[in-house]
Amino acid sequence: PFEVLVIGGGPAGAAAAIYAARKGIRTGVVAERFGGQVLDTMGIENFISVSHTEGPKLAAQLEQHVRDYEVDIMNLQTASALIPGEAGGLHEVKLASGASLKAKTIILSTGARWREMGAPGEDLYRNKGVAYCPHCDGPLYKGKRTAVIGGGNSGVEAAIDLAGIVAHVTLIEYDSQLRADAVLQAKLRSMPNVTIITSALTTEVLGDGEKVTGLQYKDRTTEELHQVDLEGIFVQIGLVPNTEWLQGPLALSGRGEIEIDSHGATNLPGVFAAGDVTTVPYKQIIVAMGEGTKAALSAFDYLIRS
Ligand code: FAD
User: Fold this and answer.
1) What percent of the chain has pLDDT over 90?
2) Please, what CATH class does the domain formed by 130-235 belong to?
3) Which residue ranges does the record assign to the FAD/NAD(P)-binding domain (predicted)?
């Protein structure tokens, strides 16, 4: 059996694997797609100490760094069930392939995925005007016109953030009113370069073949179609944690995120979690790496005590 078995090969899982392997303990990583969300990212400019890199490059470097150590990487494998053991005993992880792995400690780092609008053009113009992370891509739209899709807390926060950087922000909400906290709504309404449109369904992302040039939305009260000319669209309709396979005794939040304490421990002894799949605030690469590190050191601490 493994001493540490990491499920997920994104920044959190890679950091956890490296920290565990450096303790000289038997470490494995199961990943559906090594690199995780980083593979889908174009420019990365907030990975501190690296001014600019690209997702696929960082993902390859993550994998190379893990391979510097004796880590058993099981790529293109999907975990389908976690069967927790007794305290101090072995946990079992079942894979979709039918295989089963056993480990003294488990680190869950299966990440999350942005909920997509599903509108025509969204896929085509991803990273070419369609963005999901204002902390990451906001500065690329300095002086340009953008829209934020979604009027919950994350959408309104994104709109406030962007309004300080870009020329103009159009916030589009499906419901007849914004769902964000009142204090955020008040802040947004006080900003001069923001337009708020409610009862609106984004029906299409418009572009010139190379990049986004606008969007089309339907006014849900009149059924009329309208067009907004702009350069960027930030989709903020939810981040979904990859925990569908983890139903059972593991404590999840109302949003399906794995609940962890400040050491990355879950409610199950010997089971730790890190990164976007958890309740940790701020879903970023550098945060996920720090969280993976914490979870691995906590797993090691658990091992030397049991
Ligand atoms: P993930 O990267 O999501 O990795 C999860 C891993 O788990 C993957 O290997 C996945 O294949 C695997 N997995 C999932 N389910 C299973 C399963 N059942 N069995 C086995 N494996 C499984 N952050 C920044 O800091 N800067 C940026 O510029 C930036 N830009 C972004 C741009 C885009 C388009 C996106 C989508 C995200 C961006 N982010 C950025 C956010 C950043 O990518 C995430 O915060 C980070 O990747 C989270 O790391 P993670 O390891 O927790 O999860």
Assistant:
1) 97
2) alpha beta
3) 3-292
Residue 43 marked ligand-binding: no
Rounded distance from Cα 54 to ligand 1 centre (Å): 14
The pTM is what? 0.92
Task: Assess contact for 139 and 45: CB atoms under 8 A.
Answer: yes
Q: Are 163 and 143 in contact (CB under 8 A)?
A: no
Distance, CA of 148 to CA of 193 (rounded, Å): 13
**ipTM given for this complex:** 0.99
Asked whether residue 154 is marked as a ligand-binding residue, the answer is yes
Q: What's the CA-to-centroid distance between 8 and ligand 1, angstroms? A: 9
pLDDT tens profile 96-140:
999 999 999 999 999 999 999 999 999 999 999 999 999 999 999
CATH topology of domain 2-113+239-305: FAD/NAD(P)-binding domain (3.50.50)
Sign (positive/negative) of CA torsion 46, 49, 50, 56?
A: negative
* R_g over Cα of the chain: 21
Q: Which residues line ligand 1 (CB under 6 A)?
A: 7-13, 30-34, 36-38, 40-41, 44, 46, 78-79, 109-112, 114, 132-133, 136, 242, 245, 275-277, 283-286, 288
